[in-house]
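Operator note (shift B, R.M.): manual run for Response regulator requested after the automated queue skipped it. Running by hand, logging everything below so the morning shift can see what happened. Input copied straight from the record, untouched. If output looks odd, do not overwrite the archive copy; leave it for review.
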Amino acid sequence: MFETAQRKAVDKSRAHAPAPNPVPASPLMLLIDDEPSVGRFLAHAAEECGCRALATISPESFRREYRLLRPDILALDLAIPGADGIELLRFLAQEKCEAPIIIISGFDRRVLDSAMRLGRALGLRMIGPLSKPVRLYELEALLETVKGSTR
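Run finished. Output pasted below as returned.
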């Protein structure tokens, strides 16, 4: 009988104990690159930096996943069949995107800088261009910079 009363008291105290703080989810990076091997590399690098990552290869899938997931970090290739990174920057501006955006491209540095300026002019949070081939340490540095400032 004492054991039953003790068990009830323990169960009752547990019911009123504060819930443990949930572990915050790691930031989600959504990226688009029409080259699957590059997309896998970027996603893997993001995961190594403590992010969750989802790679898309088409503008349609990128838009759909953006609307569904509202990711914390975005990475855009400027040259994508069926659209381009500039169109996606406009889409993100229309969606009132607040996530930091990384531009990735094999285009000349002046093109990357122009895309960065346009993104800023559209009110987007542009954090850096990366030239292809992407160097892992450069991507890691950008991700570490923004990881602490996301949601």
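Quick read of the result: Strands lie at 28-32, 52-56, 73-77, 79-80, 83-84, 100-105, 125-131. The chain is about 50% helix and 20% strand.
Leaving this for review. - R.M.
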